[in-house]
């Protein structure tokens, strides 16, 4: 019992850090950068990285515009799936656990915006020519990559271990 509580505490702790950072950065952008405005100091880095305040009614990176309510439901189902599946992850699968925490945090960060701001999400990171995104989107992408790498590693371990 204690072990499963500790496992969930780790999952929730990682997700909570992501949600707090995501909501804090979005709030700072909403307060300091007018909507549809680009902030880029005249530095060499502005060729690669800018802050842009946009509202996104679709999925990550602006795909599927106008589907905010559907994306909200999908995000919440993903979060529920993670919470249900998480105890089945082996204790030594640290990348899988970290990936699940990041994915959960990202899956909860954007629905908060959708519920508070009439179906919209605040996006603000403009990197190279990639569509504008936010920390929740980044957390989902990194979490998914870690889950893939962690699952591949677990699969290789199972295949190489003697039966």
Characterization of the model:
- This protein is mainly α and 163 residues long.
- The chain has one domain (2-160).
- It is 60% helix and 10% strand.
- It has 4 helices and 3 strands.
- Helix 2 (68-85) runs antiparallel to helix 3 (94-116).
Q: Quick one: how many beta strands?
A: 3
Low-confidence stretches: none
Order of helices and strands: HEEHHEH
Q: Kindly give the count of domains.
A: 1
Spatial arrangement of strands, main beta sheet:
1-2-3
Distance between the termini: 29 Å
- Strand percentage lies at 5-15%
Q: Main sheet, how many strands, which sense, barrel?
A: 3 strands, antiparallel
Q: Supply the number of helical segments.
A: 4
Our Rg estimate from Cα atoms comes to 18 Å
Query: Structural class of the secondary structure composition?
Result: mainly alpha
Which geometry do the CA atoms define? globular
Task: Let me know the average pLDDT.
Answer: 88
Helix coverage percent: 55-70%
């Amino acid at each position: 019992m204690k072990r499963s509580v500790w496992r969930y505490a780790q999952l929730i702790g990682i997700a909570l850090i992501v949600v707090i950072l995501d909501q804090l950065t979005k709030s700072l952008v909403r307060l300091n950068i007018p909507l549809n405005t680009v902030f880029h100091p005249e530095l060499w880095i502005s060729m690669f990285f800018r802050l842009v305040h946009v509202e996104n009614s679709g999925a990550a990176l602006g795909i599927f515009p106008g589907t905010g309510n559907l994306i909200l439901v999908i995000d919440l189902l993903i979060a529920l799936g993670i919470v249900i599946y998480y105890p089945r992850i082996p204790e030594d699968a640290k990348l899988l656990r970290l990936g699940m925490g990041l994915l959960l945090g990202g899956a909860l960060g954007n629905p908060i915006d959708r519920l508070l701001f009439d179906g919209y999400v605040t996006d603000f990171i403009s990197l190279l020519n990639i569509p504008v995104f936010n920390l929740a989107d980044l957390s989902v992408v990194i979490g998914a990559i870690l889950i893939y790498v962690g699952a591949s590693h677990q699969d290789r371990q199972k295949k190489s271990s003697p039966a």
